[in-house]
Amino acid sequence: MTPSPFRWADVLLTGSLASLASTAVLAWLARREGTSPLAPVNAPSHWVHDEPALAQDGASVRYTVTGAAIHHACSVFWAAVFERWAPSRASGRASLGAVVRDALALTAIAAWVDFRLMPRRFTPGFERRLSGRSLAWGYTAFAAGLVAGDRLNRHARRAAPGTRARGVVRPEGGRNAARGAGVAAGGRARETTA
């Protein structure tokens, strides 16, 4: 089996889904914990705006847009790592279980990097606004976004014209078979596609 090709369109879709899923879950959990749903969205903007960003609960271009952009960029980065090096990417037909395993493993690595390797200034900031349990759910949602992106990308590749789908004869074989049938019938062969 040939590995699935690395494509930036796949990375952007996967990273966007992971970003949206984790942002939605973190915002929902922030509200359940009694804080503003925008608090975890604003938090990553502390990379640019330092400590005041961690206290922001309202919507603003300065904190909300900046925080969302930073989180989204980081999500796309981790999606690129996932798309490039996850073992399940080596197969065009990886099982859902293999993709889930790889997404969870990559998410655990991302969390370790976020909270253990990064200097305090470059952590996500979520950890300063939410409980550890909520963080775990947010990172789980991130992994779910990676899985959803992988599944959608694989489906799109299978459905794309010129790709070989299961049970479909290759174009060369189909052409030769049609040609043979046409000659046997004494007429011109007509090709059909599934």
TrEMBL record:
<feature type="compositionally biased region" description="Low complexity">
    <location>
        <begin position="159"/>
        <end position="182"/>
    </location>
</feature>
<protein>
    <recommendedName>
        <fullName>DUF1440 domain-containing protein</fullName>
    </recommendedName>
</protein>
<feature type="region of interest" description="Disordered">
    <location>
        <begin position="157"/>
        <end position="194"/>
    </location>
</feature>
